[in-house]
Amino acid sequence: MKQYDIIVIGAGSAGLGVGIAMKRLGFSVMMVEKNDHRIGGDCLNDGCVPSKALIHVSRQVHHSRSVTRFGVRAEGEVNMAEVMQYVRERQDVIRVHENAQYLRDTEGIDVMLGLATFVGDTEIEVALNEGTTVRAKAKNIVLCTGSLPQQLDAEGIDAVKAIPGRVHTHQTIFSLESLPKHLLVVGAGPIGIEMAQAFARLGSKVTVVGSEDRVLSKELPEVSALLQQRLEGEGITFKLKHKVVRFPDIQTAEIKSENGPVESVPFDVVLVAIGRTFNFDALNLSAASIELDDKGQLKINDYLQTTNKHVFVAGDAAAGAPAGTRYFSHGAEVHASMLVTNFITPGVFEKKLSYDNFSWVTFTDPEVATFGCSEHDLKKRNQDYERIDYDFAHDDRAVIEDYEYARMILSVSPAGINPFSRKILGGTIIAPNAGELVQELIMAQQKGLTAGDFFNKIYPYPTASRVNKSVWVDEIGGNLPAFVKKGAKWLY
Fold first, then answer.
1. pLDDT-based confidence at 72, cuts 50/70/90?
2. How remote is the C-alpha of 363 from its chain's centroid?
3. Average pLDDT, the chain
């Protein structure tokens, strides 16, 4: 039996983050993944990479069809097989440095491909895919086993699933080789909305069924409403506060609101994007005294530690943490960074899990970028703040590129005697490339930059990011106290 400093089970974003960092710091690391193709996890194989590649293609198709007003005509139908080939090619580029051989040869990590099972508090057995087994121990073990897409439970769905390629989750949708004529998306969260727009732009007729009263229910209501309006303008049909209740045949879904009539929705393909679930059965957690909560999630403390003090969790699998989790690759990065810091500085710089500086982007068009503390969080903490609601109607870059509809909503510290000392606490932007526009605001929030810092920065004209200064120019310039104006006149 071999002894390691650390064993990482799962080689997705979280596992790679912990394993590579610890190895580069000089520790011996063993990493276990089910098979070579799963290295990179959801992000590379089923999530961020393929979805953003598909969105990229759909955006190009949409732009080519949007120039008819200038006399240019784009004709023909999308070749879905070629689209998916492009997606796979992009994945393969990244897979060059996310595979078992690379991790062994370049990073020096002992990678085992097979199924890991606990046989003691700090000991595991791996049933290797080649048919043998190995045992290993470590001072600490980190579970980075990810999550699974939640399945849709509705009468008749088994008959639909029996037809190959008819029902998909985000893990299988990228296997499509032909474009659906009618795509039914069940779920109006980020995955469902991103894929709905992508397929609509490629040429599918798309219907989105969501149980909530708006799309992207974790965003501000006005942001959700604006995004839905833009998507409806592209021909997407929304059935919100509805649920799929039955599949009477293999090409029709029946949906219903709480008190409404049953409606029929035709489809060729169903994409189910209704949430995440977990399955830890194969790990034999009881052998390591690791407990689950009443939701079937791992019991975890603020340090991502399980009921076994030597076993920690990172990534999607950390949903049971007191602060919850964030189902993003960079959420896994937060966990990995925190764990590595705590491993090498125990009791000195030990960190608790916090998402106060967290941000995320939904890659629709327009994009939705949210960062920092939400208004809900600020109210819960009884923290004083003021809201700035800024539209882009007078932003020159927005006028030039036709996105005057865009909005920025910020939570900022209250105005005091010195209006230039105000700080950003959090906010949301809905605009094209909002994920890039927001980066400067994220830095300002994390580093405590003030309104004065934005005033003193000279932005090249007409860059899109000038809006980050314009919001303060309008806010402060339009609300200067009388004594400031009087003092300025006296000095003049």
1. confident
2. 9
3. 95
* Closest listed residue to residue 472, CA positions, set 457, 492, 487, 489: 457
> How far is it, in rounded angstroms, from Cα 169 to Cα 178?
16
Dihedral, CA of residue 60, residue 328, residue 224 and residue 295, to nearest 10: 140
> pTM above the 0.90 mark?
yes
> Does residue 456 carry a pLDDT above 80?
yes
> Burial, 103: exposed, middle or buried (Cβ in 10 Å; 0-12, 13-18, 19+)?
buried
pLDDT higher than 90, residue 67: no
Q: Given the structure tokens 């970028």, which residue do they identify?
A: 369
* Cα gap 58→52, rounded to integer Å: 10
* Six token digits for residue 383: 């923290």
Do 310 and 124 meet the contact criterion of CB atoms below 8 Å apart?
no
Both tokens assigned to 287? 């052998």
Cα-atom radius of gyration of the chain, to the nearest Å?
Answer: 25
Q: Cα(25)–Cα(12) distance, rounded to whole angstroms?
A: 20
Q: Return the structure tokens found at 409.
A: 């909503």
Q: Tell me if the bond preceding 460 is cis, omega within 30° of 0.
A: no
Is the confidence at residue 68, as pLDDT, over 90? no
User: Residue 124: beta bridge partners?
Assistant: 118, 136
